[in-house]
Amino acid sequence: MQGGNHMLLEEPVRLASVLAPAKPKVFPSLTKIVGTLGPNSHSVEVIEECLTAGMSVARFDFSWKDATYHQETLDNLRKAAQNVKKLCPIMLDTVGPEIQVHNSTGGAIELIGGNHVTITPDLSKAPSADILPIKFGDLAKVVKKGDTLFIGQYLFTGSETTSLWLEVTETSGAEVICYVKNTATLSGPIFTLHVSQVHISMPTLSEYDKQVISTWGLQNSVDIISLSHTRSSEDVRELRAFLKSHDLQDTQIYAKVENAEGLEHFDEILQEADGIIISRGDLGIDLPPERVFMSQKTGIHKCNMAGKSVIITRVVDSMIDNLRPTRAEATDVANAVLDGTDGILLGAETLRGQYPVDAVRTVGRICAEAETVYNQSLHFKKVARHVGEPMAHEESVASSAVRSAMKVKAAAIVVFTFSGRAARCSILHKIST
Predict the structure, then answer these.
(1) Could you tell me if 374 and 430 are in contact, meaning their C-beta atoms sit under 8 angstroms apart?
(2) What CATH number is associated with residue 321?
(3) How many domains is the chain built from?
(4) What are 61's strand-pairing partners?
(5) Is the dihedral of CA 377, 379, 385, 389 positive or negative?
(6) What confidence tens digit (pLDDT) does each residue in 241-272 have?
(7) Residue 12 burial (10 A CB sphere; 0-12, 13-18, 19+)
(8) C-alpha triplet 344, 350, 356: angle, nearest 5°
C-alpha cells in the first residue's frame, strides 16, 4: 500500500519515497507536544514561539520552584496563548515520593569515582564529597549491599557528568555508605535520589502535593495532573477522590509510570487513569537499558487498545545544549510515533535547555513525518478486533465514522461533543479530529 510519496510500513521502504520532497500538510503534527515551562521558557515571547512551533500542553513541575514562580509563568502563558490565538491546557506535575538531598550551602559538590560517600538522614550535617544529607530516615532499612542509587539534579542518563551513580557497600545505623562509580559534579539547591527497584515507604500523593493542588491547582482550574511515581491503582483512586472533594472532578489524571513497581501494576493503573506517561527518565535507571524499549512498546500498545492517551518522555536530551538532536534521538521519536504514542513530553529540553523553541519545532517535524507513514488502516483493524462486538453505541458511531473517513481519504473528522468522549473514541482509531 502506498500513500502519496510515502510507503505504509507493511511494504519495504523505497528510496524514492524518502527522497521525494515533503508535501505541505493540512495539519501540523497530530502527536501532542508537552512543554515544561521554566527558566528558559518563562517569558511571554518565548512561550509564544513555543506555542507557534507546536507546543500543545504546558507542564508545570512542582518538584522545584514555588507556586509564586509558577503563577508568574502561567500568567505569561495565558498572555502568550491569547496573543497567538491558541488554546493550551495546563498540566500540574506532582512531586510524589521523591527523596531529596538538600544542598544547604548551594555550592557545587565534586565527587570522584572510586571514593566513598555516606548518605545520612542527619540534616544538620553540611553536604560535601564525603557526606550527603537526605530528607528520608528509613533508607538504611530498605537498601542492602549491592543496591544501586542515583543522585542528581536531573538524574542519570549515561552521559551526564552532573549525576552520580552509587553502589551500596554497607549500612551503619541510619546511614548508608556507598561506592562512587563515576566522577560527577552536583550543583543546585536540591538533588534527587533514586533507589533502583526498591519500594520507598512514602505516599505517592504527598502532603505537599495536596497543598499545591488544593491551592494553585484549584485557583487555576488545571486540566491535567501528572501523578508522579504511580505504583498502584489505589494511588489513582486516592487522587481522584481528593480532586472530587476539591471541586476538580473534571481534571484528568495521567499516571506517570517510572519504576518497576508501576510496570508490575500497569494494567490496573491504566484502568483507573485517564492517560499514562511512560517516564523514561526514572524508568531508564530502574530497569536494565536493554529492557526499556520493551516496557515502552508494551505500554503504548496497551494504552492504544484501551483507548487511553499515552505520552513518553526523555526523547531529545542532547537538545538541552545542542541545536539539533542526535540521529538516534530523531529515530527514537519517530519510532515512538509509529508505536502509537499520542504525545511527547519535553522536560529539561524546554525547562532549562538553550533551545526550547527549536526542541519543540524539531520534535514536531519528526512526529509529523512519522505520521505520514503510520498505517492507519492496520491500527484500525487491531482496535476493532480488540474491542470486539457488540460495541457500545458511542464506540460503534466512532468506528463507523473512522471507517468512512478512511474510505474517502478524509483529512479530518469534525466531532460535536459536550464531554469529549465521542472525540476520544474517534482518536482511539488514530484519525485526526
Answers:
(1) yes
(2) 3.20.20.60
(3) 3
(4) 93
(5) negative
(6) 999 999 999 999 999 999 999 999 999 999 99
(7) exposed
(8) 105
The enclosing H or E element of 290 equals helix 289-306
Answer whether residue 327 is part of any domain. Answer: yes
What is the per-residue pLDDT across 200-213, written as a single tens digit (0 to 9) for each?
889 999 999 999 99
How far is residue 119 from each of residues 115, 149, 309, 347, 419, measured CA to CA in Å?
13, 10, 39, 28, 50
Long-range pairs of 108-112 with CB within 8 A, sequence gap ≥ 24: 108/185, 108/186, 108/187, 109/185, 109/186, 109/187, 110/183, 110/184, 110/185, 110/186, 111/164, 111/180, 111/183, 111/184, 111/185, 111/186, 112/180, 112/183
- End-to-end, the C-alpha distance of the chain in Å comes to 23
Other beta carbons within 10 angstroms of residue 8's beta carbon come to 16
Top pLDDT among 17 and 382 is at 382
Cell numbers given for 297: 512498546
To 10 degrees, the CA torsion angle through 156, 334, 38, 155?
Answer: -10
Cell of 9: 510500513
* Residue 351 included in any domain: yes
Mean pLDDT within 158-185: 89
Q: Shortest CA distance to 46 belongs to which of 85, 68, 79, 93?
A: 79
- Decide: residue 278, CB within 10 A, 0-12 exposed, 13-18 middle, 19+ buried: buried
pTM of the model: 0.90
Write the burial class of residue 24 (CB in 10 Å: 0-12 exposed, 13-18 middle, 19+ buried): exposed
**CA 105 – CA 337 distance, rounded (Å):** 44
CA distance 168 to 255: 30
Within-domain flag for 241:
yes
Residue-level pLDDT at 50: 98
Which residue is associated with the grid cell 469529549?
A: 420
Query: Do 45 and 85 belong together in one domain?
Result: yes
**What residue numbers bound the domain in which 154 lies?**
99-195
pLDDT band at 392 (very low <50, low <70, confident <90, very high): confident
- Please report whether residue 108 resides in a domain: yes
Kind and range of the H or E run holding 398:
helix 393-407
* Position with higher pLDDT, 395 vs 108: 108
Residue listed under C-alpha cell 531508564 = 284
Statement: residue 433 has pLDDT above 70: no
Residue 2: pLDDT band with limits 50, 70, 90: very low
- Kindly give the residue spans of alpha helices, DSSP state H, lying in 20-122: 44-53, 67-84
